[in-house]
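Annex B, item 7. Sequence and structure tokens for protein A, then protein B.
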Amino acid sequence: MLTRLVLNQRPADLTPAEREVLRAAITEVREYDAQELVTPAHRPLDSSVLLLEGMMARFVEDRRGDRQQMVAVHVPGDFVDLHGYPLKVLDHEIRTLTPVTAAVVPHRKLNVIQQQHPDLALKLWYLTMLDAAMHRQWIFRIGRLRAPARLAHFLCETNARLSIVGLSDGCQFDLPLTQADLGAICGLSAIYVNRVMRQLREQHLVSFHGYRVQIHDLAGLVRLGEFRADYLYFNEDVGRRVTGVPPL
């Protein structure tokens, strides 16, 4: 089912009936290549995108339009631009990182869900609150953690998110980001990221093989990154599995 990963393994998980209502709201499934623009900034929107396969990211562009800052990474099951439903226009753009399959949900269909299925509408709001929680952690990561801890935190977060959608076995996953991308995410230069990656390897925490990440010591990586899964709002057993500590 197209909606099977939405709020998967979270307390606000959708019921089978709600998943069917959401599936019926999908009017189109689209395929995108890697590095393709999906949702432009500053243009009126009349639909939102549910990510089914692949990875996407949000970018904020500078005034000259020649540099972009990555501000979020999205995995399957994410309703990537659901906040565009009330806003009607985004202040950032959304691009693919890998080849992507995405479902299109027109805002007129979301109007119907809001009017006729208030419990489902509340759970969709829950999705946007998860986005906000992750944004807060990205700010915390850059503002309070030292360089190695920043990368460790991001890797723990990504591993946790990919684990619940079947794209990580808990210790290895593909991460289609360059060192420059990781630098932007962690507030570091690409050269410094290379140094930090080497430190994590030398501490036998993580190794990198192209875009493949291999975690050798998850507990150690969690400690270094001061990572807790509470802000991801997983079910308790999932939070314990991806960090060794249950969520709040």
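Protein B:
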Amino acid sequence: MLNQFSRTQLLLGVEAMDKLKNSRVAVFGIGGVGGYVCEALVRSGVGQFDLIDDDKVCLTNINRQIIATRKSVGQYKVDVMKERMVDINPDVTVNIHKCFFLPENADEFPFDEYDYVVDAVDTVTAKIALVMKCQEKGVPIISSMGAGNKLDASAFRVADIYKTKMCPLAKVMRHELKKRGVKKLKVVYSEEKPIRPLEHNCTERKEIPGSVAFVPSVAGLIIAGEVVKDITAAGLS
């Protein structure tokens, strides 16, 4: 019988689709990268999600975030993403957490119940805490490196953190993870040299990176593909 996942099943098979349906994926950070991760995974048949973010959609998100429209400005990103995901698959379970992940609240999340974790957060502190928690609990994790100040969507690579190059964020992560004895971490990173923004923009943060529609989205879709591949243990070309 045909269903909304029939075309995916032609490539992955029934067993893989069952694995996806019975998997729970936590996506930390529902922005330019994380939003596309959620979009692709719910369309791939993943049955349960945890979405973690405390941000609300703002006007400057519209240029690159899949949930950002004039209508959604001012709404919590996790609420907008959940509504979209349920529209795509009414049978999906979406748990939302309106908070930022921090070392201080790491124990509040049910890592024991996650089959996979996606790190799409912005800060090094949160990324490291996520990696350490997943290592402690034995949960697979994939981490997004810097997608800001980039224009070449074809420059993304999937690699272990210790085999990355060019990416400034990956360099910091390598250093910090090595100090903590972390032996490996699957990441998506860009080998494009970061571009210096034409204008200097500052708000509460020291500096706001430039970004476009076609770079963070590609990073998110690559991450989603890796999650599907790892969960189903099926080679995707």
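Comment on protein B: The longest helix spans residues 216-232.
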